[in-house]
Amino acid sequence: MKAPHKIALGVIVVSMLVMLFAFSGAVAHHMDIKEVRTRPNEICQVPGQIIKDTVTYDATKGELRFDIAAIDPKTRKVDLNERMTVAYGQPKPENFDEAVGVEAIGKYKDGVFYAHNLLVKCPSKYSDDKSPKIAQK
Amino acid sequence: MDIGKICVIIGLIASLLTVVLYAIATRGSRSVLLAARAAFGLTTLSVLGTAARLMYIVSQHKFQFDYVFRYSSADLGWPWNYAATWAGQEGSFVLWAFWTAVIGVLVAWKAGKWEARVMPFYVSTLCFLFGILTWLSPFTQIVRGKGPSDYPLDLPWPPLNGTGLNPSLQNYWMAIHPPTIFFGFAALAVPFAYGLAALVKRDYESWAQRVMPYVLMAVATLGVGLFMGGYWAYETQGWHGFWAWDPVENASLFPWLGCVGLLHGLVVQKSRGGMGRTNLFLSIVSWLLFLYGTFLTRSGVLSNFSVHAFSELKSTPLYLIIGIIVVQGGIGFALLAWRWKTIPGRPISEKPLSRDTAMTLAVSIMMMTAAIVAIGTSWPLLSRWGIWKSIPIMKNLYSANGLAAQPIFYNKVGSALLIPTLLILGSVPFLAWGKTNAEKSLWKVLVPWLSAIGVGAMVVWFAVSQESTGFRPETPRILVVIVGMLGAFAALANIILAVRLLRVKAVTMGGWLAHVGIGVMALGIVMTNVYEQTKTYWLLEGAAPVKTPFGYSLEFAGWTHDGKSEEDIQKEWFEFSHSMKINVAHTPSESGVAHADDQTGAARGPLAYTALTPVFRQHNLQMAAMQDDSKQKYMYWPSIHKEYNRDFYITVASDPERILPQATLKEGETRAIGSADTADTEDKERGTTNSLVLKRTPYSVTYKRFYMHGGPGQPGTAMGGEMVLHVPDGRDIPFNAELKFSPEGGLKPVVTDIPGMNAVAAIKGGIDPATKEIVVNFVLPDVSPVWMAPIAVTNKPWINLVWLGVILMGLGTLCAMIRRTLEARKGLLLADKASDGVTDNEETAPTANSDPGRQKPAAAPVKGPAKPAPTARVKG
Q1: What is the mean pLDDT of chain B?
Q2: Which of B402, B464, B582, B872 is most buried (most C-beta within 10 Å)?
Q3: CA B428 to CA B482: how far, in whole Å?
């Protein structure tokens, strides 16, 4: 095999190994609230509907806290009895107040889900109803 | 049918006609060629018509169009009334088509003999785009009728207002970033088209030279466009970062990496003749990477894994996107396979210490990086493939719901691949094509090496000084030092060569300058990401200044709208002048406690500047209508203070509030009414910060008794407490603080006037059913409410190196584009240079020698010994 081909092959093999190595502990499993409680200290991605009354920000701890309620992915129904507290250590994300749902990515520990990332879902992603009940000036 | 839609249909027909006519024109008939050009002209006019019509209806607020209704509103000012044109999927397809057509005119004009072969492949993209736009039209009107998603018949027609542009997009970057990045995307189709044309024509040499300026154009605009997006995020999002490894960001990154790989392969082909097959392969792959990225971001398959990805596409346009990948990719690879054996392979040097080997490594690393980023981004889809369950090491990477690769994945892979990349970048200026004379070159490398070690020492010193404040970075220091050192090495090695070339033949310094940019960026990225620190505090009106460990103290200083009436403030719903003012003063930077030295005010040093953090009220009408709650929604932009060695970044972390004097009591208790204040707090993880406390006012209140009049949950029922207010002048005034069940459901607080005084009271929140505890807010004549805002303060050291690196990279790439355009025009034949085995001596740093027998004077143009000089001017 010619040298340049050997080099290319070497790079391919080494980088694939690097990739496999980097993957461990660096993926977030998608699961619901019930299941995530059974997997503490593993990076998970949990969807939920934000319970608006519970949103607070504590500057002393530098944390945004709110509760989410479980959403069935197929029926999209919200189960308010299945709740979890999420703590997010960054400022409140931009569309947070308008968001209906959120995907929280992080680890569950001692009753609280510590999220390092929040994917905020706009209402239009949930409702098929694009009804224009708009205030027309 | 709207004129815009007519333009789309004409465009669809015209583009198909263009492809067919150009294909026929390859047989040589001039009249067919002219017909093809006419068809292309018509295609271009259709694109322009479509774009112009769309921009017209958007900027002129024609809300009867569904697209305009969804993405704009009547109060949208300049430039967003135009920039909203590309806010949605349909508009961004139009933008893509627009640049494709514009660049296509350039390609057709400059293609010479290649025109008829290149244009069919190039214009095929426009066929697909028009096809998509036919089904996904921005020119459809809202349906009027009685269904839930139809516009009600009783509302005005045409609608007077739309639902508005997403506030995150109302930023000047919206006018600059999408056009730039889509220009880069459109340009990627050129090497693809030329590559396929080369395969058909069996002319594998001159396509490379012709296509290089376009590849450089794509690298420059895509690269700058990528970082524009990063800077946009940095400037407006409170999370103080500029790259999140979000799928949409990655979908623009991996095509760019592919294109950079292609560029370097073309350099090898031009200088040494080798990598001919590789480059044809790469030209197809870069284009397909872009199409694949487009599919990922537009189809909705990653909408659960990304903040930016568009929501689902309807099925026909989705199939068309898949179709374009299958058809163009299929034809491309089929052609490549068919012609594979006819492509001459010219061997390049196998010596380890040669530029050839360095380039082989470089191209391989770049392509693998592109592949890994693409795989990581696709993992939410790929992880669902059942086959992983049967492979031991891959078992954990399987999930039926999809697994998303976290930023740490990309950081690990990126650092691992960055290290050899920077080493190569720094060595290449000292490596010659063919063979490098090791003894002579090696000692010259010492210059940048030793300087880089010096930089490494400075990085260590810097790291130690940051850590002495108690900060513990997540990344090991050794990694920071290595990457920083190698970045400096790369930058210094290339700048030596760039400066030398500046005096000799300035136009060739482009690539080297771009490499300087990469080195500087690497150093900046590693320092700023690892050593950034964030602290959060309560900022309270009238409280002691907050002392940060970054050399500044902060103090609330009012609002920019202070003095305006509430009506005026309400009217200006998206007004930049609504900022919170924060006085930022110098303090000696000890990692000390923020002193509440109210009496002497000694904690505050000289004022450095006043930070303005814009606080916008969100006013997305559809959201308000759907959610039916009147709470103000805010959006905050940070204040970024740029200094040469850091950015001081202040952002409002959550809603500012006015805190009224208040008391929290249970039945029978008497408490002082407290006014908000802050007190220093030590947190074992977070260091020194502050917390909200209440300081006593001369007023107090007694909660005598809880009462409920009426049944629980029934409208009209009131519950609350009988209270007595104790005023400093000695009076005791009884009053009731209560909540009422409203007819619409829910408890609403009643604002009670306190008799005999200019004061009111109201319950805050609810009443705990078990303890009957109540929190009461007061408005008292001599105790004012205070503004409170939680703020996050971030110190970002050396971040401006990142932007400096981007600028150098952009300038270098543009310079290289000018050089390669001039070369393509002179029509230097690739074959000449390659068969001589001669290297460009000017392009190596001093003393790197090539084949000793072929020494050429540094400034002489390349001449082959057996060819007549000057090199024959051959067109095409």
Answers
A1: 85
A2: B582
A3: 19
User: Is B790 within 8 Å of chain A by CB?
Assistant: yes
Q: How far is A19 from chain B (nearest CA, A)?
A: 6
**Which residues are bridge partners to B791 per DSSP?**
B537, B652
Per-residue pLDDT reduced to its tens digit, A39-73: 888 899 999 999 888 899 999 989 999 999 998 87
Q: What is the DSSP letter of B870?
A: S
Query: CATH classification of B1-167, choosing from 1.20.120, 1.10.8, 3.40.1620, 3.40.50?
Result: 1.20.120
Determine the Cα angle at B41 with ends B36 and B44, to 5°: 125
Angle at the Cα of A81 (from A80 to A86), degrees rounded to 5?
75
Collect contacts of B342-345 with beta carbons under 8 A, ≥24 apart.
B342/B202, B343/B204, B343/B276, B343/B277, B343/B280, B344/B204, B344/B276, B345/B274, B345/B276, B345/B277
A131 shares contact with chain B (CB less than 8 Å): yes
Considering only the beta carbons, identify the residue of A27, A136, A137 that sits closest to B397: A27
**A window 77-116, beta carbon within 8 A of B:** 90-95, 97-98, 103, 105
Number of H helices, E strands in chain B: 21, 20
Question: What residues does each domain of chain B span?
Answer: 1-167, 552-642, 662-784
Which CATH number is A28-125's, of 2.40.50.140, 3.40.50.720, 1.10.3720.10, 3.30.420.480? Answer: 2.40.50.140
Nearest CB to B412 within list A26, A29, A129: A26
Q: From chain B, pick out residues whose CB is under 8 angstroms from the CB of A128.
A: 149
CA B500 to CA B496: how far, in whole Å?
6
B591 contacts chain A (CB < 8 A):
no
Cβ of B155 and A132 within 8 Å?
A: yes
ipTM value for the complex: 0.90
Residue B833 buriedness (CB in 10 A; 0-12 / 13-18 / 19+): buried
Q: What is the CA radius of gyration of chain A?
A: 20
Peptide bond into B347 cis (omega under 30): no
Between β-strands A112-121 and B639-643, what pairing exists: parallel, antiparallel or unpaired?
Answer: unpaired
Residue B169: phi and psi, rounded to 5, are: -90, -5
Q: Is B141 on the interface with A (CB under 8 A)?
A: no
What DSSP designation does B242 have?
S
What is the CB-side half-sphere exposure of residue B168 using CA atoms within 13 A? 16
Nearest-Cα distance to chain A for B429, in Å, is 20
Chain B nearest-CA distance from A53, in A, is 10
Interchain pair A133, B404: CB under 8 A: no
CA pair distance B479, B527, nearest whole angstrom? 11
- With a cut of 50, say whether residue B601 has pLDDT above it: no
Residues 6+ apart with CB under 8 A from A64: A55, A56, A57, A87, A88, A89, A90, A91, A92, A96, B653, B654
Give CA–CA dist B256/B184, Å, rounded. Answer: 9
- Contact residues on chain B for A29, CB-CB shorter than 8 A: 399, 401, 403
| Edge-to-edge strand ranges of the sheet holding B546-547 | B546-547, B552-559, B579-586, B607-617, B634-636
Domain boundaries, chain A: 28-125
pLDDT tens across B339-357, in order? 998 888 888 888 888 899 9
Alpha-carbon distance B544 to B604, whole Å? Answer: 9
Give residues 52 to 71 of A whose Cβ lies within 8 Å of B.
52, 57-62, 64
Query: Residue B856: its pLDDT value, please?
Result: 39
Structure-token match 């376009």, residue found: B214
Indicate whether B622 pLDDT > 60. Answer: no
| Contact status of B746 with chain A (Cβ, < 8 Å) | no
